[in-house]
Structures are given as structure tokens and as C-alpha cells.
Amino acid sequence: MQTSDALSRRGFIVSTGLACAAVMVAPRRAMARRADGGIVTSMRRDAANAPIEVRTLRGDLSVLLGSGGNIAVLHGSDGKFLVDAGITASKPQLVDALDKISGDPIRYLINTHWHFDHTDGNEWVHGAGATIIAHENTRKHLAETTRVNAWDFTFAPAPAGALPATTVRGPATLYINNATVAIDPFEPAHTDGDVRVTFAESDVVHVGDTWWNGHYPFIDYSTGGSIDGTIRATAANIGHVTDRTVVIPGHGPVGDKSQLVEYHDMLRTVRDAVAALKKQGRSIEETIAAKPTGAYDKKWGTFLIAPDTFTRLVYAGV
Fold first, then answer.
1. CA dihedral of 78, 139, 148, 125, whole degrees rounded to 10
2. What would the pLDDT profile of 150-191 be if each residue is shown by its tens digit?
3. Four-point Cα dihedral 98, 101, 105, 108, nearest 10
4. pLDDT tens-digit series, residues 43-79
5. What 3-state class would DSSP assign to 114?
6. Contact 145, 27 (CB under 8 A)
7. What integer pLDDT is reported at residue 13 of this predicted model?
8. pLDDT band per the 50, 70, 90 thresholds, residue 143
9. Do strands 106-110 and 131-135 pair parallel, antiparallel, or not at all (unpaired)?
């Protein structure tokens, strides 16, 4: 395990908010799954043949789209710096995409939160030479058996190589490839371990699953998420960016501040509509029948989270 001092000697300077993580992990256990495989098994299976799109953003920054969550890549003489690791089944396509960006080795990885579509590739990325950094709650969930009730799925503890070696408690600033990289933890939002990663000089921000661009989001109540926390995180993201900022969502196309505002307005409107119906004494089925998401379904309801599912998620939190 490397300390922050060792990282500094390798040209990766770390300041504030980082703590070395313990290396003890529980034994790996079999994962429970639904008879039909469920969303986790299906996404892992689909990732094996998913094409990876490489988009150059600004300077030495690119984004990889197609393997679970969106992956940011900063390359340079200090090595590649990744934000999120995608799904392991996409490894051949991801390796090819990364090689096309540059020949620099992978040196560092930040997880925006613990969900498998952002961390499933941690083990192979670590095996390629990366030091993994994440919120301390991300490491906690990866290191233990963790149940996501909405997915009807129990995740076994991750292998040692997939666990973050360095954890974030508060804001941290990193310097790599002549870039200033800020890590800002959120209060519980999509989960209880979300972080935002800002590339200061390029004015590019990766906000993880606190933003699903053009899609209804999943909210993980099992590990500390909530609709109100998601709304607060979106408001914080809006306040953090300018009209020029390039914003990378956890899912969906790369966007900008105006799209964040649109997302925030959708969340607030649906939340308030569902809350009003629940206050009237409507059951969850009666609330779904009232179609509180109706005005947004054509645009926002065509990805993983269907309108009825999103209504259930909001209802659980109001």
C-alpha cells in the first residue's frame, strides 16, 4: 500500500482530505441473483460486446462512453489518470480505446462512487498499475457484502486489488500531468459516497451519477441515497460550473450547465408532484397511476429507469 508521501515522490502530489485505507478484506462470497439474472447480470453480459466511443474534450482530456458509467481520461508524462473504471467485461474494448488515446501507462483511478458499473473494472485497472482513490464510504461498500434492494442483488466483497488504497473524507487537490484536479465529496446524494472531480485548467467536471443526462436517475436508498440529496447535489453542481464548463455525467452524453438546470427542474417538479400525491394518502400504485412524471417521460424515461420505477424511487423518499 502506498502512502500519500510515496505518491508525491512519483509526481502525484496529494493535499488535504486523504487517508490511507486498510488492506484487510473479508473473504469473497457468492453473489445472490434473481433467476432471470436481473439488471446487474444483464449489464455485465451486455458490456462484453459494447462498443466504446472515445471523445476528445479539451487538451489531454478525453471521455470513454459505452462501458457502464462514463470514464474520464487525462493522459500525460505522469501516466493516465482515470475517473471510473467501467464494467470488467468491456476490458478488451477499453484497453484498445486507452491505447488509441496514448501509450502512457495507467497510474491513477478515482471512483465517483461504489456502484459496479463504475468500479467493476477496478481490479484489472489496479493490475495495470493504478493507485485507486475514492470516498471512504465507497471503499466501505466495496469491502463488505452490500445489498441493493432495488436491484434485488447482493454484492460480494470485492477482491483486494479492486479496493481503493487511498480514501477521501473531505475536499482534496491532486496535481498530475500539469493539471490541478479537485475532488469534492457530496453529502449523501445518489449514494453516501459520491464525489465530483474537477479538472481546473480545462474547466471540465465529472459529476458521476449525481447527473444522468437525459435519463431518469437511479437512487440507491440501500447505501444512503435519496431524492432530496440528489436534488441538493444537482444544485451544488449548477453552482460549481459556468456556461463554459464541460460536464461529464455518470450516464448519458457529455453536457453543460443548461442541461444540469433542466435536470434539476425535472427532479424538483417530479419530487413535488409525488410528495403531494403521497400527502393526499395515495398508495404507491395510485401515485404511479396518476402519472406524475408524464410531462417528462418521452425524454427522460427511455433508458434504464422507466417512469414507474422512477416514481417508486421518488415516493420512497418523500
1. 30
2. 999 999 999 999 999 999 999 999 999 999 999 999 999 999
3. -70
4. 999 999 999 999 999 999 999 999 999 999 999 999 9
5. coil
6. no
7. 41
8. very high
9. parallel
**Could you give the C-alpha distances from 106 to 83, 101, 117, 122, 247, in angstroms and in order?**
11, 12, 19, 12, 23
Contacts of 260 (CB under 8 A, 6+ apart): 211, 234, 237, 238, 241, 247
Pull the grid cell for residue 166: 487511498
β strands within the chain, DSSP E: 13-15, 18-20, 53-56, 61-65, 71-74, 80-83, 106-110, 131-135, 146-148, 153-155, 166-168, 172-176, 179-185, 195-199, 204-206, 246-248
Residue with the three cell numbers 496529494: 14
Using DSSP's 3-state secondary structure scheme, residue 52 falls into coil
Q: What is the mean pLDDT of the chain?
A: 90
Residues in contact with 123: Cβ distance below 8 Å, sequence separation at least 6, in sequence order? 88, 158, 159, 161, 162
Handedness of CA 307, 309, 315, 318 (dihedral sign): negative
With a CB cutoff of 8 Å and minimum separation 6, the contacts of 113 are: 134, 135, 138, 190, 191, 193, 194, 195, 208, 209
Q: How many CB atoms lie within 10 A of CB 36?
A: 9
Tracing cell 457502464 back to the chain, one arrives at 68
